[in-house]
Write a structure and sequence with these properties.
mainly beta
Length: 92
């Protein structure tokens, strides 16, 4: 069971929250590891075609005040609010 992640200043709630992006061929899975609002960075575990990478992206704010980072050669906007909490029972 997944739950929507609500926008909050308590970023620990986002830990390991998940988002999937379809790139036209495969799904790429993102899991939030850490958000640092002072440095304006987000650290994400990216699973792409079986390879897992830990990547730090710059964190931006759009016109509506929503946080996002840009991914890939087309700078696809990945919004933090689009991530969903992962149910711990899934991985138990």
């Amino acid at each position: 069971m997944k739950h929507d992640v609500s926008r909050t200043n308590e970023f620990r709630k986002y830990y390991l929250s998940e988002f999937e992006l379809y790139d036209g061929e495969e799904f790429i899975t993102f899991n939030i590891v850490h958000i640092d609002t002072e440095k304006k960075e987000i650290q994400v575990a990216v699973t792409d075609r079986g390879k897992i990478s830990l990547i730090t992206y710059d964190l931006f704010t759009d016109k509506e005040g929503k946080l996002y980072f840009e991914y890939g050669p087309t700078y696809e906007r990945v919004k933090v609010d689009d991530f969903e909490e992962v149910d711990n029972e899934t991985y138990a």
